[in-house]
Structure prediction request, 304 residues.
Amino acid sequence: MTSTTTATAPLLFENLTKNYAGQVALNAINLKIPAGHVVGLLGRNGAGKTTLLQVAAGLVLPTAGTCRTLGQRSDLLDSPELTRLGFVMQEAKFIEWMTVAQHLEFTASYYPNWDRDLQQRLTGILEVPVKRKIAELSTGDRQKVGILLGVCHRPALLLLDEPMSALDPIVRARMLDVILERLRDDGCTVVISSHLLSDVEKIVDWIVALEAGRVVENCALDELQESFAEWTVTAPDGSPLPAFTAPFILTQQRSERLVRLTVRTSEPDAVENFAASHGVTAQSRRLSLDEIFPLLLAAKKEVR
Prediction:
């Protein structure tokens, strides 16, 4: 990441470890997220994503190491930081007997910067049924309420843990627009954990990937996508192709007349140089985040 001081990093993890009943959920995490980024937090179920966000929000205490959220140790978060922090959980806890409108009013009373105009506009955009009781809401509508509670106080740091898993595609698209608007208008730093990688790819500019409680990738999305590709390789005369053994080749799939290689390399002219050195024709295709994700985990390359 770009160089930044500890004071300006909304999130800073230093040798952070979290154990549950002898099981390691987070293993010596060192990670700094500077202001103004939209970070995609990726990982399989059980990789540690939710635990990392819960530690950042002060809901879970680390076993060892420290997390600083908005400059304060996460176990000491208080009103100055909490009023600038937004956290949207996949299954948030609400006061079930309240209507949505009552719950919004109740929550707004704790935030001096609560934006009622923003609340009204997002209620319409996300089609939130404000007159219904929380207990009567579908899973998707409960997620919408959680989103309102997480963003209407215009936080400086917004943590999103699977915030769109129960939303339909139309509302998901609107939610992505909301995130981008918060970034544009408030300079909000966003960390979003989601398995909907095609959605994440549209808004994030940085990727952090976890596997078994460790950071296995930490870089700009553009840099990541530029380093991965699929090459379709053919021989000019249609003859059989040999097995290719270059170290940047991750996988290869063969058919009668061509080979498809998935590669990772930062060399600018890698495909041209490969074609010339092997006397073949090679066409390159950029991979989507959905395609890159399993390759990251397969490599298990820890980034410190």
The first strand starts at residue 11 and ends at 20.
